[in-house]
Amino acid sequence: MAVSKCTRLSGPLTKQVLDSVDSVLFDCDGVIWRGDQPIPGAPEVVNLLKKAGKRVFFVTNNSTKTRKMYMEKLEKLGFEASEDEVFGTAYCSAVYLKTVCNLQGKVYLIGSNAMRQELEAMGIEQVGVGPDPVSGGQKDWASVPLDPEVKAVLVGFDEHFSYMKLNRALQYLSNSECQFVGTNTDSRLPLEGGKAVPGTGCLLKAVETAAQRHAQVVGKPSSFMFKCMASKFKLEPSKCLMVGDRLDTDIMLGTTCGLKTLLALTGVSTVADAEEHQRSGCPKRQGMVPDYYVDSIAEILPALQA
Ligand SMILES: O=C(O)COP(=O)(O)O
Ligand SMILES: [Mg+2]
């Protein structure tokens, strides 16, 4: 496989690339918004792509919102979107548990209310969502009462993450029959002004360390997110453009699935990171080299206004 060039997307090349695809998959955090602030120009880009007849999808590792909640956030920030164009890990992990794990039973959930809602919409009952403050001592922790119907542990972003939750997950996962699924491995969430907060990857790593097991990860770079989309919409990979801010999730997903890839420098990764991977000679790392890059997706506006 030829190594991607990591070429700046500008001038006539922009229109060439856009003309060569019929679908654009946008990562969210760090590409179309940071926290609750849209990236300047991003709504115009998305809405003009749709006007130009391109299909637009939103593919986010963020597990804090249901598809409906994402559609509301997108509309509030000026993006035209419909619920079925949004693929977040709250929804995709519920699909994964249902269709890949064929889960017959409950989930011990370390995650958000949004994940609980998407699980319940898929007919999956969860236990564990919400605060879980520490109580008792070590002996009690090692023998916390476990729900016998729990057949899987699911870890997503959880602002109530706690020692007790970590311990409960360890106790459930001590049973090798209990499946272990994580939404994503993103270590940091990029916010406005170059700030960041710990991402789900930190929580997932803690549970993997305690349980001494590796989770099945649903989010990018796992190809499951793309499979979820391709099973609903006829997508031709070579006619899809994946736009992301992280080399190790977004661009890796694009490479793995045979999509064209565009790095937006408004989030986590830099061109220097990409060029280091390019020079590495390591095939895995070279899968994180994007075909193209822009400072911000706003740079493709002129090609859409021509
Ligand atoms: O929530 C995250 O960690 C990253 O989300 P993203 O895939 O939209 O960048
Ligand atoms: Mg991102």
Structural class label: alpha/beta
Give the % helix.
25-40%
Q: Give the distance, in angstroms, between the N- and C-terminal Cα atoms.
A: 34 Å
Largest sheet: 7 strands, parallel
Topology pattern, helix = H, strand = E: EHEEEHEHEHEHEHEHEEEHEHEHEHHEH
Which stretches are poorly predicted, pLDDT < 50 over at least 5 residues? none
Query: In percent, how much strand structure appears in the residues?
Result: 15-25%
- In the sheet with the most strands, the strands line up as 1-16-15-14-2-5-6
In this entry the ligands are: 2-phosphoglycolic acid, magnesium ion
Rg over CA atoms, rounded to whole Å, is: 20 Å
Number of distinct beta strands: 16
Anisotropy-based shape: elongated
> Helical segment tally?
13
Mean pLDDT across all amino acids: 96
